[in-house]
Amino acid sequence: MEVLVDILVWVHIVAFVAGGSNPVVMPIMGSRMAAATPETRSTLMAIADRLSSVGKFAMATLLVTGPLLLWLEYGWEVPNVWFWVKMALIVVMLVSISLTEINGKRARQGDMEAGRRAAQFGRVTAVAFLGVLLSAVLAF
Ligand code: HEM
């Protein structure tokens, strides 16, 4: 059982490292998007799409390994209030990621305002993600 818990912690860490690349790399690419040539822009969009898929897969992995750890390592016992702070911020991330998806579809259809909003949603997700990391460290 201990080995399984260790593997789950490892997968949990790998997932938040992989997903955590999004808030670092996306703004860098986004800042180059407006001035890029059409060819470069389509390359940047392809990279952004791939990163976004990695992020969603990482989030799904966290949402599976997290509860498994809480069950197998802590017997569903919530350690302290920081755990609930972490859960609340995860909900903020999920809402923000969903809104980013909807907004992204509009931006692709040529909605310029949606293109500008993308960076704001990205910032909300990034700040919530940093809060999740901090509350996770304080919780466990
Ligand atoms: C965005 C999603 C998530 C992120 C970024 C995240 C991040 C983290 C981090 C940084 C740690 C290490 C804390 C430490 O050992 O000091 C951790 C541990 C943990 N997380 Fe998450 N987590 C996420 C989702 C979840 C969910 C949904 C649950 C449960 C419902 C959960 C349950 C746990 C548990 C039980 C541990 C302790 C593992 C151990 O004892 O080493 N996590 N998480």
How would you characterize the overall build of this protein?
With 140 residues, the protein is mainly α. It folds into 2 domains: 1-77; 79-140. It contains 4 helices and no strands. The chain has helices spanning 2-33, 38-74, 81-108, 112-139. The protein is elongated and about 55 Å long. Bound molecules: protoporphyrin IX containing FE. Residues 9, 12, 16, 59, 62-63, 66-67, 69-70, 73-74, 90, 93, 132-133, 136-137, 140 line the site of protoporphyrin IX containing FE (HEM).
Characteristics:
single chain; 140 residues; mainly alpha; 4 helices; binds protoporphyrin IX containing FE
The gyration radius over C-alpha positions equals 17 Å
SSE sequence, one letter per element: HHHH
Total tally of structural domains: 2
Main β sheet profile: none
Oligomer kind: single chain
Indicate the overall shape.
Answer: elongated
Query: What proportion of the residues form beta strands (DSSP E)?
Result: under 5%
- Helix tally equals 4
